[in-house]
Amino acid sequence: STTDLIKRKYRKQIVTTTPCPSTDLERFQPMKKRKRISFISRWVPGKNVELFLASVISIENQLFEKGYEVFLCGKSQDGVIESEVQNLLSAAKHPEIVICPGYIDSHDILPESEVFMSLQHINNYPSQSLIEAIACGCYIIASDEGDTRLLVKEDFGACCELNIESISRCILDYIYKDDNQKQTIPDSARKFALESFDIQKSVEHYLRLITED
């Protein structure tokens, strides 16, 4: 979405768009899924940690009844967001479903996660953790910003607005899918990753730029 803007600004330069994002498709693969909803991010303004947690708490009874756990991974530099997180959890009826492990390698959590959340104020494309989650066969719930819809397809995800009602509705829509529907999601996401995130496409693109006269 920024290519035309950059072209207008740098009229004398050649501007190209890398054909696709990429990730390590061997390292990030689906494993047996657990009833886990994962949010992995630096805890900074714009990532909407508190909004995510407030959305979770608004449907905590349903999540608890369905046996889901919520991994809220990351930390802030100044501890302010941690304080807000603890305040929200102190008012929850089922705080035990929310696990806050701090920073954690996404490889250690995404392969077994059913759902991955990405709620940035700005473009989710091409968020590295997002493409890792798709490669791991996660169901994606992401904020409908920028070019996010190029990555989040209906077969394995949904785009939401940045408010509690929209986020919680998307989560509920997923957890109440029947098991047959859920079982198709990892394969759909993985198929898209294999078709779209192969680093060789980017390598070939740059080779052409270097070798063309």
Characterization of this structure:
This protein has 213 residues and is α/β, with parallel strands linked by helices. The protein is built from 8 helices and 6 strands. The chain has helices at 3-9, 49-58, 60-66, 80-90, 128-135, 164-175, 179-196, 199-211; strands spanning 34-40, 69-73, 98-102, 113-118, 139-143, 157-160. It has a 6-stranded parallel sheet with strand order 3-2-1-4-5-6, sandwiched between helices. Helix 5 (128-135) links the parallel strand 4 and strand 5 (139-143). Helix 2 (49-58) packs parallel to helix 4 (80-90). The radius of gyration is 18 Å and the shape is globular. The model has no long low-confidence stretch (mean pLDDT 92).
| Helical residue percent band | 40-55%
Distance between the termini: 27 Å
- Shape label: globular
Counting helices, strands and paired strands, the structural category is alpha/beta
Strand order of the largest sheet: 3-2-1-4-5-6
Strand content: 15-25%
Give the biggest beta sheet: 6 strands, parallel
How many runs of DSSP E, i.e. beta strands? 6
* Rg value: 18 Å
Mean pLDDT: 92
Element string (H = helix, E = strand): HEHHEHEEHEEHHH
Low-confidence runs of at least 5 consecutive residues? none
Tell me the quaternary state.
single chain
Q: Please, how many helices?
A: 8
